[in-house]
Design goal:
Strand order of the largest sheet: 1-2-3-8-7
Structural class: mainly beta
Distance between the termini: 17 Å
Order of helices and strands: EEEEHEEHEEEEEE
Strand content: 25-35%
Number of domains: 1
Helix content: under 10%
């Protein structure tokens, strides 16, 4: 079973919440007359699984992909999960080696050394530089006509979650597996500057079959934060679960959709 509403949201950053909950960084995105919340995982809270995510950033994206994104109108666009379009697949597109992904903690003392720092830097740059665009790849929820957003309080609730690899899962989240339906964040800045963030859970396998399920038997490279390279470990297991803690809110916006 694949994601039912996989696609990409194109819009402008109009707000953000660094500490709205433990597991996610929340981004407020305006696209035309609609407002959306983008919920980006920074932590896995699944039991018996590593909590730290795997992360990779890139400023080099294929020209055809960049042109395709630029041509999109503002708003959400459902994507067909197949090769040859804008749909993402960490395994099959070959844009990067999985071993380049490294463990990055969600929130640590110091500058630019955790996922919240990296997201915040990119988001603030997009909010402050006129003409910047954010593209959020993942699964859409809403609009929820009678529900305000949990964090930003806009109505109707609307947004994108699963901003991470969506294949190679085992256990509870195996049902989310599919090919060409991976999530990511992409920013375009003035002067044709681009920045992409790719995220994965350590329990996900990078060796998957034609349905996005872990290949059997499979071993997946696991991040080694000291060397930046990765060593083989067994794959499988759950991903993460929704956080129940909400603390600080600073700007206005949608309903309670977890983004897991």
């Amino acid at each position: 079973m694949t994601l039912k509403k996989y696609g990409v949201l194109k819009g402008t950053v109009t707000g953000h919440l660094r500490d709205a909950d433990d597991d996610h960084y929340q981004i407020l995105v305006t696209a035309g007359r609609q407002v959306h919340r983008v919920a980006v995982n920074v932590l896995s809270s699944a039991p018996n699984a590593p909590s730290t995510l795997l992360f990779l950033s890139s400023t080099k994206l294929p020209e055809a992909f960049r042109s395709g994104l630029t041509a999109l109108p503002a708003g959400y666009r459902k994507l067909r999960s197949r090769a040859g379009g804008l749909a993402l697949d960490y395994v099959r597109l070959g844009w990067f080696r999985p071993g380049r992904m490294v463990e990055v903690p969600p929130d640590e003392p110091g500058a630019d050394n955790d996922l919240k720092d990296k997201l915040e830097r990119a988001v603030l740059a997009a909010a402050s530089k006129a003409g910047s665009i954010i593209y959020a790849f993942g699964e859409k929820w809403g609009p929820e006509q009678d529900r305000r957003d949990q964090y930003f309080r806009f109505l109707p609730g609307n947004g994108i979650h699963d901003i991470h690899m969506n294949q190679g899962n085992d256990g509870k989240y195996r049902k989310d597996n599919g090919v060409f339906q991976d999530g990511a964040l992409v920013f375009s800045y003035p002067d044709d500057k681009w920045l992409a963030f790719f995220l994965a859970f350590q329990t996900q396998s990078f060796e998957t079959d034609d349905e996005g399920n872990p290949s059997e038997p499979s071993e997946q490279p696991s991040a080694d934060t000291r060397s930046g390279e990765r060593k083989a470990v067994r794959t499988g297991g759950p991903k993460r679960k929704k956080s129940t803690r909400a603390t600080r809110a600073t700007k206005a916006g949608s309903s309670k959709r977890p983004g897991r």
